[in-house]
Predict the structure.
Amino acid sequence: MALNRLALMTSLAGIELRHPLMNASGFLGYTREHVHRLASYGLSAIVTKTITPYAKEGYEPPIIVALRNGGLLNAVGLENPGKKCIAELVEEARKINVPLIISVGGRNEEEFVEVAIEAEENSATAIELNLSCPHTKGYGLEIGSDPNNVFSVVKAVASVTRIPVIAKLGLSDRVVESAGKALEAGAKGLTLINTVKAMAIDVHTLKPILTNIFGGLSGPPIHPIAVRVVYEVFKEYRSEIIGCGGVSSWIDAAEFIAAGAKAVQVGTALALANNPQDLVSNILQGLQHWLELHGYKVVEEAVGSAHRV
Amino acid sequence: MALNRLALMTSLAGIELRHPLMNASGFLGYTREHVHRLASYGLSAIVTKTITPYAKEGYEPPIIVALRNGGLLNAVGLENPGKKCIAELVEEARKINVPLIISVGGRNEEEFVEVAIEAEENSATAIELNLSCPHTKGYGLEIGSDPNNVFSVVKAVASVTRIPVIAKLGLSDRVVESAGKALEAGAKGLTLINTVKAMAIDVHTLKPILTNIFGGLSGPPIHPIAVRVVYEVFKEYRSEIIGCGGVSSWIDAAEFIAAGAKAVQVGTALALANNPQDLVSNILQGLQHWLELHGYKVVEEAVGSAHRV
Amino acid sequence: MLLEKDENKIPRFSFRPFKIIENIQIASNTFLLVVESANSLDHFSAKPFNFFNIWVPRVDEIPLSIAYQNGKRLFFLYKLRGLGTKTLAQQKVGSFIGIKGPLGRGFEPKRSEKWLIVAGGIGIAPIPMLIKRALELDAKLDIFWGVRVSTEFFDIAKIFGLPNEAWSIVRVSEDCMADFCGLVIDAIRSVNVDKYDGIIAIGPQEMLKTFCKQYGESRENTYVSLETIVKCGMGICGSCYIRESEKLLCVDGPVFRCSEVAKQLEGASA
Amino acid sequence: MLLEKDENKIPRFSFRPFKIIENIQIASNTFLLVVESANSLDHFSAKPFNFFNIWVPRVDEIPLSIAYQNGKRLFFLYKLRGLGTKTLAQQKVGSFIGIKGPLGRGFEPKRSEKWLIVAGGIGIAPIPMLIKRALELDAKLDIFWGVRVSTEFFDIAKIFGLPNEAWSIVRVSEDCMADFCGLVIDAIRSVNVDKYDGIIAIGPQEMLKTFCKQYGESRENTYVSLETIVKCGMGICGSCYIRESEKLLCVDGPVFRCSEVAKQLEGASA
Ligand SMILES: Cc1cc2nc3c(=O)[nH]c(=O)nc-3n(C[C@H](O)[C@H](O)[C@H](O)COP(=O)(O)OP(=O)(O)OC[C@H]3O[C@@H](n4cnc5c(N)ncnc54)[C@H](O)[C@@H]3O)c2cc1C
Ligand SMILES: Cc1cc2nc3c(=O)[nH]c(=O)nc-3n(C[C@H](O)[C@H](O)[C@H](O)COP(=O)(O)OP(=O)(O)OC[C@H]3O[C@@H](n4cnc5c(N)ncnc54)[C@H](O)[C@@H]3O)c2cc1C
Ligand SMILES: Cc1cc2nc3c(=O)[nH]c(=O)nc-3n(C[C@H](O)[C@H](O)[C@H](O)COP(=O)(O)O)c2cc1C
Ligand SMILES: Cc1cc2nc3c(=O)[nH]c(=O)nc-3n(C[C@H](O)[C@H](O)[C@H](O)COP(=O)(O)O)c2cc1C
Ligand code: FES
Ligand code: FES
């Protein structure tokens, strides 16, 4: 079935998207070759691996493992080549004409700003601030679980860049408040959520599996948690949201959209799919049918539809 | 295979247990008949539904639904007949000679104390304070996510009862701190964790499924999160812990024990099993094999074994 | 014969989307609901006396017996009672509802057996499915169906296209406009129950109570299909427990031996 | 022929517990590891050139080619390199390790084909499995195996009980103690490669580079089995990407056409 390109179009933080589906950060995304591969999946935008100012070594493997519950557990440790790789990534994305969102990480405002400026100078499409990695000391959720920190990092970045800033928040007690602070500080969109802190122990060797012991849980197990966060945040602010967490079928994506998301990221399911291209096109076809079923002409009309109760 | 009764024996907060497996609160447990049914599953102790001082009506159905990710989502709303039912429950448990743990709920210290006194006066085996229900307004996690509240509720109850007090905590940013506060306030054990706040939307009707909109996610999806919490809390305090969340096989139970749990609760899996008796005995047989494999003579020796790295 | 429960519960305990094909009044206060699975891969096979929980979005979740199954189509017969059933009756053809099930254990005669069926009011709901199965099993059913006023009757043979063989139906109404005048429980008094392999009654609790008193004590093969408050349908919430029994209606029922539910039926009069 | 990947990835991407049955030195610096699934229900079928990630608890996760499979038993051949392989060599018989896989795509001849195999050093590891499969497929393999010093040789026929039919092996060593003296790449120069349906090389990158230069440009059916840094083995971390290609070794490899990995091999010399 051919896709109805018009029906699936959406936009997020001012970025025009062919359809709502992009990859989640951390699935490839730090070399030219990765960008090329991701583009071949048929995604509407590509999100890079989180980039820090300087090259960062990750943890020793095991860094990613599948779990009995159908999810993945990972502690990669934000391994990346540092901001110098941005130029090459942008160049590759431009060649294949796909919007590129640079995921930015740091230990403090200065580091976030440093990478964000690099992204802007290379004319990346947008910036996604990773305020939510649950297992890398000094990064991510250690910053993102405090709404005031969220405010200051987003503010610092938003005030020095003109390209759209998206704040990616993780599960925390005050995630709704953090979302508000991010918007107040100038975020044009929110990505919700990151992985959830978890661990797995091998009962035959009695050892934690990940070298880092703790990691982030992703995939279907976290989807209902993510939908809840998207719903709560949308209800409060009617903001532009990218739903992320456990999407593996069009139903999961539609749930996010009904909860309030204008776009959706897929991570774990890309890795578990036998054919990522087929996964993406199946999700898009399902979404298109779903829009038709409800008589929606464009994605926009479906956004937040579950709030009309 | 016959079970090795000696190897499986354990104790928790001073309660002697035939083996580590009890039910999680909220799976039946508020009538005499429920207690009888639960006892027939072969559990080593029975935990009641959370009891509040007065009868509490729950939400309108749907209150519980299975999800595509293999978990359950529920918002029952702490429906229960009030503290007056405790006498009957204790009586029934005594008849069939199984330890009975009264799960206690309330909106403030006074309510917790009121039910706890009723439990003590009826000579229940122990009390489990539900400081962790994620979806009932005014109850549970609204109290339990603040370590100071945890301290004052546990303190209030522990100072008026002589039977052991177990604090049940849910996922929150400061759960490790809350655990410490509960122990400091006199809790003899900790149950970790409750369900995780989540939601599901039906994409065909565009409506949240649960009448309460938000509910708690249970079952396999949350197991790696629960293991992480047990591991972190055990690491910090070496306290007596009941692992709870997503146990559906002996491997899940063994993971909890290796992480630091002396006992384990099963909820969702009891409901999803075709035969709860078989489920319980399969888990126990698996655990026994596992102990043998590692040369452990009693459960105690396996507790926290994953910390010896 | 009580049947075993199904295997994998996750799909059965989820709300699967079904499209409403028909939802029409067929007798006084009584509706026929026909739904079809929205998922072409959805597969289930309901047995007689299984029930499904029907989710009326944002209003309620209502247990209804399966009246008939035809491939992906499920048929239900329901009586208006309170808000839930009334809102269900307003659902439009083409709209979706969520359906959880099949729930409970099925119940059916053994091959070539002969059963007496006593239905009161909307208790007739599961009987078309039972007839369908009896035909397959070469079993015979004699059905007595009693209602208060004969406008409550409808023609199950016609609605479900049941061939008129292997089963008989005697209509009983208190308004004396049918085959027999009075209560269904009186209508069967003249029947020699000993010529049946078993008997089963379904209807208001008062009727079941009388039924079990008369037939349940001496005969092993006397069953009733009960109602209790069913909320979750999954054996968790406990609302459907049977008094002084370990059983839960939603898991072990709705069909029980009279001997298993004596205390429960006693409570009915209270 | 490159084979498709397996279906359900969750079990393949988990660490399944395997018990160590044997872990012995069989040549200089070279070990044979035999493991057996601890789970009697565990089912998998590895294909030649699939690899598994071996978890050495608290130390590392190491990709090793499947050398042989016999029911629930997996066989690996590995060379000591750094901390990971050294710690692996210390694991005791009876202890457990975690194994992720089968990973990558398999590779095997088509029925009745004739292939030339060029192995350098521990590049011999996947060959016993390939021979096993060739026997099933009625295919013929001529193997050239080169090492630096002949103490690196071991007898794959004996270790894996391979019948001496349908395959031949020529041993090549730089210390001139074997069938041919020198580099394996020189040893095959005299071979008429045109009589084979395909050729495949596996070993150090330098060797593969030379191999592809010599045979890869003119012939379509010229393959190499590569190594890159494999961390996750799941197509996520990106460490195994092939330069100037969309391919990932852990998903699409380790076997590639020479033409697909030209840039990658170029980098090898750097
Ligand atoms: C296993 C089972 C199978 C059933 N099959 C049928 C059927 O095929 N056709 C049919 O018309 N009815 C059937 N019923 C009864 C039907 O479920 C109730 O009529 C319906 O739930 C009433 O909902 P309401 O909101 O309209 O009424 P309410 O206003 O909620 O209540 C009206 C009456 O219905 C009873 N009731 C309410 N909720 C429930 C509930 N969740 N479970 C059981 N009883 C309830 C109450 O006791 C009350 O007397 C069945 C009940 C059970 C338990
Ligand atoms: C698909 C594949 C199949 C392989 N099959 C075999 C085999 O059957 N037998 C065998 O002996 N070796 C095999 N290897 C190589 C083996 O994985 C490495 O020797 C091993 O990882 C080294 O680990 P170490 O900790 O001992 O050494 P380290 O100290 O970590 O490194 C020593 C050398 O090994 C290389 N290396 C390290 N880690 C990896 C890694 N994760 N992936 C790839 N290379 C790495 C490094 O480039 C370095 O030069 C295979 C590699 C791949 C990619
Ligand atoms: C292996 C792995 C690496 C990840 N790396 C990053 C990262 O670098 N930056 C980030 O913001 N999120 C990272 N994430 C989180 C994902 O972007 C996403 O939020 C999460 O996986 C939930 O989506 P999913 O269930 O579709 O995978 C990573 C997740 C995984 C599994
Ligand atoms: C339907 C349902 C009702 C529950 N009710 C309670 C309750 O009353 N009190 C409580 O402390 N926990 C309650 N819980 C949480 C469970 O006790 C348990 O913490 C949670 O389900 C995780 O365990 P599981 O994955 O084994 O089900 C309930 C859970 C479910 C699914
Ligand atoms: S309806 Fe909930 S236990 Fe039966
Ligand atoms: S090893 Fe991680 S992507 Fe291949």
Q: What stands out?
A: Residues 5-58+77-196+218-307 of chain B form a domain with the TIM Barrel fold (CATH 3.20.20.70). The radius of gyration of chain B is 18 Å. The CA atoms of residues 7 and 110 of chain B lie 41 Å apart.
